[in-house]
Design brief:
mainly alpha, two-stranded antiparallel sheet
Length: 528
C-alpha cells in the first residue's frame, strides 16, 4: 500500500477501471485503445484539457441574442428579463450535459464535477456568471489549487452565493470566511474547545471576514453591461491590522487592499492542513471512501508531500494516484456507488448512443437528463448545501446514500426507459425520441454473433469486478431467449444480411434491450 507505480499486468480490466473512475462512461473501443496504449500514456492523455464550444441560444424566450448565437457576453433585456434568464439556464444545462455526453478520453468533466461538489455554488441569478464559474472550474480542474481558490474567492457567483458582495468594513459578513476555512481550504480538524478547532478558531473566521471585505459584483442582470465582474472598492475594505490565532501561526495581516485576500490564502496554504484536506477529498472521489490509518500513512501523507513539493499543482498528484498500485488493487474496484450523473451517462456514453437533432432539441434532451439526475438526488446546479452532496462527506454511508427505496426505483426506471421503451421524448417535438442505440452498440463489440463473447464484453464495459458465472448465464439466456447459442448467431447473421427487415430488427433490439436493462439493474453495474 503506497503511491508506488503499478507494475502489474496492464490488461482490459485495469484499463477499464481507470477509465470508469476518470470518465462518465468509457466505450468498448476506448477500453481497447487504453489497453494498447499503456498506463502511463493513457493517463497523460486523460490529463489533457479538451476544447469546448460555448453554450448558445436555443429558445425563443431569449430577448437579446439570435438563436444559434452565444449569450455569454450579452446584456440582459429590459423587458421580461426572467424569461431570458430561464432560457439561458436551460441552455447552460444543455451545454454542461452535452460536454459530459460527448467527453473525449479526458478526466476534465469528472474533475469539474469534483470542484462543483467541493465549492458547491448554486446557480447565479445571472446565467452569465454561472457560465464563467463553470468555465473557471473546468479550465483549472487540474491546475494550481491555491490559485483556483484565489479566483473562486472573488468570482461573482461565489460572491453572490456566500454574500461576499455585501461584506464591508462597517458590516462584516462571515459566511464566506467560515466556509473558506471549513470547507474550501484547510478544514476544521478536531474540536479542541468552544470555538477552537485543530486548524483554526472562531476568531480567525472574524478576522478573515475583515480581510475579505470590499468586493462587489458589477453587471448582474444588467441591460447595459455585457459582462459580470468582481470589483474591489477600497472605501468598503477594512484596512486595520488583523491578528490570526496560534492555529494559523499568530500571523499579523497588514492592509493589502485588493491583494489582501490573496495574501491571506497564501497564509492558509503555509501549513499542510490544506494539502491534507484536499488529498482526502481526492482519495474519496477517485479511490475509496474508507481512509484507514494505513491509507493515511501510506497514501494520503505521500499525496500531501507531493502537493507541497509541487506548490499545490494538482496534476502531479492526480497522475501519481492514478498510476499507483493501490489505485488498481482489486479491493478498490467497485467500491464507489455511481452518482446519478455517472449512472445515466454510463448507459449512454458506454453504448455510444448519440443524438443528432437540432441543437435546440439536443439541449432539451440534455436538460431533461439533468432534471432526471436531480430527482435522483444530484442537481448539478444546486447541491443540497454548501458542503456539497452528503455522499462525499457523510460517514459511514458515503456513496451508499445514492441508494434508497425512492432512488433505486428511479435508477431502475431510467434504465428501462432507455433500453426497452421509446418514452424518452423531446418536450419541444414529441416525434423525436432518444433510446440507446442497441444494435449499433453491439456491432462495435468483439463478436456480436457470439452470445458468450458478447456477455463477456458487457461485463468488461459495465462491471468493475466482472460478473459471476451464474449472472452471465442469466444474461445470456435473456439474450438468446433460452435457445441454444447458435440460434442467436443465426438470428444476428440473418439481420446483418437483411438490415432493412423491420420485424427482424425489432426482435433483435428487444433481446438486446432486455439484456441491457437487466444488466443495468444488477448491483455490479451500480458501482465504479
Amino acid at each position: 500500500m503506497s503511491l508506488k507505480a503499478y507494475s502489474g499486468v496492464w490488461d482490459e480490466q485495469a484499463a477499464s477501471h481507470l477509465l470508469r473512475r476518470t470518465m462518465f462512461g468509457p466505450t468498448f473501443q476506448q477500453i481497447k485503445y487504453a489497453t494498447q496504449k499503456g498506463m502511463e500514456n493513457v493517463i497523460d492523455e486523460l490529463l489533457i484539457l479538451p476544447d469546448s464550444t460555448l453554450p448558445i441560444v436555443v429558445s425563443d424566450k431569449e430577448a437579446v441574442v439570435s438563436q444559434g448565437q452565444s449569450w455569454v457576453n450579452s446584456p440582459f433585456p429590459v423587458i421580461n428579463p426572467q424569461e431570458t434568464q430561464s432560457a439561458r439556464n436551460e441552455s447552460l444545462a444543455g451545454w454542461i450535459f452535452q460536454n459530459i455526453h460527448n467527453e473525449s478520453l479526458s478526466i476534465h468533466e469528472k474533475m469539474t464535477l469534483f470542484w462543483q461538489n467541493h465549492f458547491a455554488v448554486e446557480e447565479s441569478s445571472d446565467a452569465r456568471a454561472t457560465y464563467y464559474y463553470y468555465k473557471l472550474l473546468r479550465e483549472n480542474a487540474l491546475g494550481n489549487i491555491k490559485d483556483l481558490i484565489k479566483q473562486i474567492t472573488i468570482n461573482p457567483s461565489m460572491l453572490q452565493f456566500l454574500n461576499g458582495n455585501s461584506n464591508t468594513k462597517n458590516s462584516p459578513n462571515e459566511n464566506y470566511s467560515r466556509e473558506l476555512l471549513e470547507l474550501f481550504s484547510i478544514g476544521k480538524g478536531e474540536q479542541i474547545g468552544e470555538g477552537d478547532y485543530t486548524n483554526y478558531t472562531e476568531a480567525d473566521i472574524k478576522e478573515g471576514a475583515k480581510i475579505l471585505t470590499g468586493w462587489r459584483i458589477d453587471g448582474i442582470q444588467s441591460s447595459f453591461s455585457t459582462k459580470v465582474n468582481a470589483t474591489f472598492v477600497a472605501s468598503k475594505h477594512d484596512t486595520t491590522t488583523k491578528n490570526l490565532s496560534s492555529r494559523l501561526g499568530n500571523i499579523v495581516v497588514v492592509n493589502g487592499n485588493e491583494n489582501e485576500y490573496a495574501n491571506y490564502i497564501d497564509i492558509l496554504f503555509e501549513t499542510e492542513h490544506a494539502a491534507q484536506f484536499i488529498s482526502k477529498k481526492l482519495y474519496r472521489w477517485f479511490v475509496n471512501y474508507a481512509i484507514t490509518p494505513e491509507v493515511q500513512v501510506n497514501i494520503i501523507d505521500p499525496m500531501v508531500q507531493l502537493l507541497v513539493v509541487h506548490n499545490y499543482e494538482l496534476k502531479p498528484v492526480i497522475k501519481a494516484l492514478l498510476s499507483s498500485a493501490h489505485f488498481y488493487d482489486i479491493t478498490n474496484r467497485g467500491t464507489i456507488i455511481k452518482n446519478p450523473i455517472e449512472l445515466v451517462f454510463s448507459m449512454l456514453n458506454s453504448t455510444e448512443s448519440k443524438i443528432s437533432y437540432t441543437t435546440q432539441i439536443n439541449y432539451d434532451f440534455y436538460s431533461q437528463l439533468g432534471s432526471i439526475c436531480a430527482v435522483m438526488g444530484m442537481n448539478y446546479f444546486r447541491p443540497p448545501n454548501v458542503g456539497g452532496w452528503p455522499a462525499y462527506y457523510q460517514a459511514p454511508n458515503y456513496t451508499r446514500l445514492w441508494i434508497n427505496s425512492s432512488y433505486i426505483n428511479l435508477r431502475f426506471l431510467i434504465s428501462s426507459v432507455l433500453t426497452l421503451t421509446d418514452k424518452f421524448k423531446s418536450k419541444i417535438d414529441k416525434t423525436k425520441s432518444w433510446q440507446i442505440d442497441l444494435i449499433g452498440f453491439i456491432q462495435g463489440l468483439s463478436s456480436p454473433s457470439d452470445p458468450i463473447q458478447l456477455i463477456d464484453d458487457l461485463a468488461l464495459i459495465f462491471c468493475p469486478k466482472g460478473l459471476s458465472i451464474e449472472a452471465k448465464a442469466k444474461l445470456k439466456s435473456l439474450l438468446t431467449n433460452g435457445l441454444p447459442d447458435f440460434e442467436w448467431s443465426v438470428q444476428y447473421d440473418e439481420y446483418v444480411k437483411n438490415p432493412s427487415d423491420i420485424s427482424m430488427k425489432q426482435a433483435l433490439m428487444f433481446r438486446i434491450g432486455l439484456t441491457l436493462d437487466n444488466l443495468f439493474k444488477l448491483p455490479e453495474f451500480q458501482t465504479i
